[in-house]
Automatic annotation (TrEMBL):
This is Gfo/Idh/MocA family oxidoreductase. The lineage of its organism: Bacteria, Pseudomonadati, Pseudomonadota, Alphaproteobacteria, Hyphomicrobiales. It comes from the Bacteria. It comes from Agrobacterium tumefaciens. Residues 26-103 form the Gfo/Idh/MocA-like oxidoreductase N-terminal domain. One of its GO terms (molecular function) is nucleotide binding. InterPro entries: Gfo/Idh/MocA-like_OxRdtase_N, NAD(P)-bd_dom_sf.
Length: 112
């Protein structure tokens, strides 16, 4: 998968899961990156509302993020039990994926 980002192009990024400790730092780094555009975040955690409020993001459904052609990549930063499933769903939707560790609950999850 290759994306060419020119001066006027935007690279859309969204979060699938926000409960990993590195999530806010990664979001802030992408917010400072020219050409990167944060397209929202999904999580079933009650922490989603304060997370998106603090970082100026939109709360979205997983389905909306995966169907959005302007989202080119996702950060999978969910709880361990859902990381593998979210990563596979994002890959099947044609998204580039950055999956935080651990990428699941064991070798069966990560082999997927």
């Amino acid at each position: 998968m290759t994306y060419a980002i020119g001066e006027d192009a935007e690279f859309g990024i969204a979060c699938l899961g926000i409960t990993h400790p590195h999530t806010s730092g990664r979001v802030k780094a992408f917010q400072r990156m020219p050409g990167a555009r944060l397209m929202g975040a999904y999580d079933d955690s009650p922490l989603l509302a304060p997370f998106v409020d603090a970082l100026g993001l939109e709360a979205r459904t997983k389905e909306a993020i995966l169907a959005d052609p302007n989202v080119h990549a996702v950060l999978v930063h969910s709880k361990s039990h859902s990381m593998a499933t979210l990563a596979v769903e994002a890959l099947e939707a044609g998204k580039a994926v950055l999956c935080e560790k651990p990428a699941g609950r064991g070798s069966a999850d990560t082999a997927r």
